Amino acid sequence: MYFTELPSLNSIEAIMKQPPGVSQRGGGRKRSSHKYNKKDCDCRFCLEHSKDGCTADICPVLDIRLSCGAASFRDAVQAIFAGARHIPFQKRLSKIYDRKDDKPVVFQNEQHQRIFEAQRKNLRKPDNQALAVLYLLTADHDLWFRMRRYIDGSGKVDLQAVRLEDISIDGYAIWKAVKELQTGEKQISLSELSDRDVISDRAFRFIVQAVAIARLGIGILREWRNRE
User: Fold this and answer.
1) Which long-range contacts (CB under 8 A, 24 or more apart) does 87-93 make?
2) Using the 8-state DSSP alphabet, how is residue 137 labeled?
3) Which residues are CB-neighbours of 107 under 8 A, at least 6 positions away?
4) DSSP helix/strand/coil, 30
């Protein structure tokens, strides 16, 4: 039933009656969503912005800023851990990521990137945690060689079937991070991540970057791809 009389108004009324988020059936053309650019993502336009900087613990539109290049891979990693109240950890994070002249080390090497991308395409609808696990495992060649047979089509690792012997210190740290990402159970403390004698800078970097992937998805790898 329409309360308006003219056909042109009937169509408008039909749209107004639709529940929020439901697209119109027929009679129109589906338009692509707005593509943001760097100018759109100027922090000064954000409600969380103040004269002293951002008031949010994590940027509420970080994924959008990453998608248009307004935020860097470095920004994503630092934002994820901004709320970590552990001074030694924050000092280590800053020492690695605050060097503005350094290019982001997103992958261990070309082999890491190649294996990750190839295996990612073989997975069936992996979630962010599965992609983060794959990113970590493929960062360590020896660990990947041992673990690849235990990964199912969705990217989940059969943790009970894994038997690790004679593994490197870095490999063990990465393996603990893999278990925490997949199960959500605490495996590595901030104190351990802060200790270079326990976890090397290499392993530290890939672990925190995997956490960023688990939180934000592989869209944060955009900056690395754009340099190719």
Assistant:
1) 88/190, 88/191, 88/194, 88/195, 89/190, 89/191, 89/193, 89/194, 91/194, 92/193, 92/194, 92/196, 92/204, 93/208
2) H
3) 113, 116, 139, 224
4) coil
Q: Cα–Cα distance between 164 and 178 in angstroms, integer?
A: 13
Domain spans, the chain:
43-97, 110-226
Q: What confidence tens digit (pLDDT) does each residue in 65-79 have?
A: 776 777 777 777 878
Q: Report yes or no: 86 and 191 within 8 Å, Cβ to Cβ.
A: yes
Q: Which residue has the tokens 């129109």?
A: 28
Task: Provide Rg for the chain, Cα atoms.
Answer: 22
Taking only the tens place, the pLDDT of each residue in 161-198 is 888 788 888 889 999 999 999 998 888 889 999 999 99
CB 74, CB 80: distance < 8 Å? no
Over residues 217-224, the mean pLDDT reads: 68
Coil, strand or helix at 50: strand
Q: Which H or E element spans position 49?
A: strand 49-50
